[in-house]
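Comment thread on ticket #2218

A.B. wrote:
> Attaching the input chain for the structure job we discussed in standup.
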Amino acid sequence: MTEQKTTVLIPGRMHPRALERLNAAFDVVQTTAGAELDLPAETLEKIRGVATLNGMRAEWIDKLPNLDIISNFGVGYDGVDAKHAATKGVIVTNTPDVLNDEVADTTIGLLINTVRRLPVAETYLRAGRWEKEGPFALTPLSLKNRHVGLLGLGRIGLEIAKRLEPFKVKISYHTRTERKDVPYTYAASLMELATSVDTLISIIPATPETHKIINADVLAALGANGVFINVGRGTSVDEEALIDALKNKVIAAAGLDVFYDEPRVPSGLFDLDNACLLPHVASASVPTRNDMADLVVDNLVGWFRERKVLTPVPETPVKG
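C.D. wrote:
> Ran it. Output below, let me know if you need it in another format.
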């Protein structure tokens, strides 16, 4: 007699590697991307696990009476109501650490591209303008002698800081609590950080407290030589204020990998030659995304085989 497989829900899209492994290990129910959780009652009752790309609202959790675990693809899990899940005894996991290096590497690349305008220079060359018009214009900005402020100094922030050290820049940071295990200068507030540095890198998650905290005042404090880099969450930025600051040279430049309403990007950013824009690719390499996919599945397999998970989020009740 064949053993009954545990039923796992995938609400919408999922990474191909994760999907392949999930189909091999579980009885998978997958909905259409963007669709509501409109499934027969008997199906909802069978579902005990969820694998998601950052999407599991409280009302969906409430529809699944026998749910044990939600395994999220990504470090950020703001689209999963982890607090509500905890009230139901439902575990939530994410995929930290496996993408730290990739995101940190991309951050440094984005910073250099933004300061030295390398993508613009390549476009200039490819268009044949070097031969026709002469050398590409000198960039007004340089990474030399910069003072970089990190908004957030968790796992990824620390990797970014380590990569910045060889560039001989000064490093400061702001977090809710000062760290005693780093050599960098602590700023007690975001405004203090922005005032003291000329380069601000945001690596913070999306929470009610971080919503649009990068505002006109912060950008003004960063100053006319200021560079803003965002690899955290787009919701932390007041994009209208940022566009205005870039247009009016309140700050010198910005490099963005994330946006408020992805994949929709404000049209005002496209016209700015002092904005370097990426389509949320910080962790988007095949090896890193495969590692993330494996961790999504390993958390589910670990729970249903041994009642153990590898990477529970802080809000979750760890059982077993």
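A.B. wrote:
> Thanks. Noting for the ticket: The mean pLDDT is 96.
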